[in-house]
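In response to reviewer comment 3 from the previous cycle, which asked for concrete evidence that the modeling workflow produces usable outputs, we include below a single protein chain processed end to end. The sequence was submitted unchanged, and the resulting structure tokens are shown without manual editing.
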Amino acid sequence: MLMFLVRHAESTWNPMKKIQGQRDPQLSKYGKKEAGLLAKRFKELSFDAVYASPLKRAYQTAEIVVGKKTPVIREAGLNEISLGEWEGKTLRSIRKEYGETFDRWAVRPTRIRVPGGEDFKAFVKRVKHTLRAIEASHKGGNVLVVCHGGVISTYATLVLNLPPDDVWCLTVKHASLTIVEVGADLHKLITFNDIGHLMGLGGFKATEVTHVD
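The workflow returned the following structure tokens.
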């Protein structure tokens, strides 16, 4: 089975550099353009199933990508990590208010819990359980999963057998494509963070310390 993982397109909060976590802003106009380019990329490809995080920015991306060809299954296990008190705040204000806590979390997330947020180790278990369940439900074919940067980065660390704390070494851009070949005994990372379909839009910027949003 081939699993096609897509990070949601740009939301209305992304240009403001607001941390979203499990908050629920919708796609921006630019984000809808990104999703439209993904739809063109997948025009000749059919999916046996499509799963998406119920959060608007992911679910709307999935709807644009597949149109009415395939029903989109809402899967809460694909939600982004809850970032508690940081949600709705800008990176600048978080750094100012939480300083050392944020810096330590951005390097070793398993050792720091975001105030009021989800424990990172529990998040890793959730991602693993959810995606393994999707894998088990589809022994062959193509499956599309539209979710969030933290979810895709975490899944990649599981596929590559990397320590969970290495998660932020993996950049996942908006509307990017990651492909994993799922085998009985071995998972293979075929493509990671592919944004070739977006090159015509331009405007790419340096990645922030954390892309969990």
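The chain has six helices and six strands. We consider this sufficient to address the reviewer's concern, and the full set will be provided in the supplementary archive.
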